[in-house]
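Supplementary notes for students who missed Thursday's class. We covered one full example, reproduced here. Read the sequence, then the structure, then the short commentary at the end.
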Amino acid sequence: MQQHKKYLSLPTLLTLGAATFSLLMLAATPIWAQVTFNPPKDLAPKKSTGGASRDASICSADISTSNAASVTPLLPKTNIGLTLTQRPTVLVYVPQTKAKKAMFTLQDEQGKQYYQTTFPVPRQHGVMAVKLPSSVPALTTGKNYQWSLVMICTQELEPDSPWVSGWIRRVESQRSLNNQASLAVATKLARMGIWYDSLATLAELKRKQPNNPSVSASWQELLKSVDLNAIANEPLIN
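Structure (token representation):
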């Protein structure tokens, strides 16, 4: 008996082809965890004087190079962030400016100075990191610390020099976290409300993997979740 071969109709072939194409596109599309910050109820201490003194244009910032014209601390609107580390990293956006140097200070709520340093301001605009060195005493769990970054526009520090500031509180976690920087760690930290560490983890990944679309998307998503949209696409600078 002669066997009849069965052929798929043209509409069926087109449907299967479209489905196969969709699967291939899905496999080629980078997938990342949703890095959205879950803010705790902590607020900056009442003695806080705010996040910034005045616009950085006093230092002749070139606002044409960026959407963000002022020196801006990378912090939630509460102006305070949590950390699990003894010596966290602070990130600040700096526009292109004629200021040659800046001064960074850290003190506790009682005004005791923990750290102070002066460093040259990068020539290009972008997000820069200030890492507390090992010589700084470890932050005490449960205490608040205020950091300040002052832009020195002239040869010396002036009373009206523009500045920004923010608060840090070190907390303990009952969860065990891998110390190695990864998107999974950054996501978990963000969901726990640990701002400084989640941001620093993504910044480290972004420096090491500048062409990784998953890292870039996660960085932008974290900043946009705290209304830092104007900085989300700014470069990282040394």
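Commentary. The longest strand covers residues 144-152. Residues 10-32 have pLDDT under 50 and may be disordered. If anything here is unclear, bring it to office hours.
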